[in-house]
Amino acid sequence: MLIEVNGHQVFAGTGGKIFDNKKPVIVYLHGSGFSHVAWAPLASQFTQKGYSVLVLDFPGHGNSEGRVLSSIEDNALWLKDLLTVVDLKQVSLIGHSQGALTALEFSSSFPDTVSRLCLMNASHSMPVHPDLIKMAETNDKKVIDLMLKWCYAGHSGDIMTEHGQIMTNKKSIDVAKMILSSKKLSDVLAKDLKACNNYSNGKVSAKKINCPTMILSGDKDKILVYNQLGIETITIPAGGLSCDIFMIGAFIALISFLIFGLTSIALPLILLFVLLISMLFTACYGWTVEKLAYKPLRGSFRLAPLISALGMSIVLQNFVQVAQGARTKAVLPIITGKFEFFKDSDFVVIVSHLQIFMVLLTIALMAGFTFLITKTDLGRAQRACEQDKTMASLLGINVDRTISVTFIIGSSLASVAGMMFVLYYGVIDFYIGFLAGIKAFTAAVLGGIGSLPGAMLGGLIIGLIEVMWSGYISSEYKDVAAFSVLIITLIFFPTGLLGKPEIEKV
Prior knowledge:
Elements lengths: L1 E4 L2 E6 L11 E5 L10 H8 L4 E5 L15 H14 L5 E6 L1 H12 L4 E7 L9 H8 L4 H10 L18 H11 L8 H10 L3 H7 L4 E4 L25 H19 L6 H28 L8 H22 L4 E2 L7 E4 L7 E4 H23 L1 H11 L1 H6 L4 H27 L1 E2 L3 H16 L4 H21 L5 H15 L14
Parallel strand pairs: 3-4, 3-5, 5-6, 6-7
Antiparallel strand pairs: 1-2, 2-4, 8-11, 9-10
């Protein structure tokens, strides 16, 4: 599609369908040196969802005529002229890098025109190294190598060789070809980089945004400085029934220990069998609860899952109370033995074999789960669904399956905690999940929401606080001490000890 703006033909892709300005419209803005090609695969996904799209080539880029504009402000004014020509009163903007700066400036200058905003790999300021600009001005193709190393390293493995050459990597080659497909580097890329480097109005513009906004970034991106924008968000972990699944896991572990106690199987094998059985049963519970209490409410108002979780929590507690009775259940110590240090002193340190086992198991599970979340395809799918289920679905992720698997994993881990609770305390009842759930949330907040090592550290600190409080003040008020830590942390350290601000849809 060609649009005449200020006497020049502007190319706009339409996602393979006829453009209709009566439908909701999404406008895509590319980054420095790029063209509409960067957005083509994604744009077609939205046309299938009932949107019309305009995938633009900025002036002098790709198939668009005219000179390359010299500033972000000029790009924003040009975009306003284009939207006026096609009679669009309101659009959703998606911008990458330089396109994101343009979208930011446009949203500030014409707030009534933007209904939603998505900024990818950009910040309120994007200073560019002088050497990078100089190479682009002299048409030195090494500038492509530097851009790949700076902006795209880690996207699909190590892109650069030790000699600074591009490796035979399809994604990196595609990026390089896209930038080189335009006119001379000095006519396009150099001017784009200068425009980004000279833009200084971003912080003021960001404060004026009043529409729903999503900010997307890569964890290895070296450009972004979102903390300077004053953007602070937290991620709330999925799953609200872990505390009661924990309680069910404890009962299953207790029953399993009683059964295996009648056999002559060695203790390590008993622990392994009990662990596997508990994880299997609680995984089934978690999957069932997700299908019954959560899946039907996707797309409902935000409080609906919380209300459903509270209801299922009551159901599970009463189910266990009816099935197992209201009285407490006890089991004899299973793992015995201890190490004593400083026996000849007045301060003897005792470390039990059970405590060592629990610490080692916790560290192993934390390491494994951290690897799963950060390094695997499933982990990336989980993080994508947590941020935006709709966008994750458009990118080919099976959202329903990912959420179900997450519930299964979470329920399995809760059963491990339940088994350790049985081993350590030896006494359980149908109500143990409630207090454990609150303290688990306290530990997560203290350590930092979204940080698995932080949650472990927070749990350790909460445990030490309770022990010290019980030993030196009174055991009757140890819960008060723990929850006071929660209040203080939320007031003074909202991101926790190891938590990091994350970019989230607001």
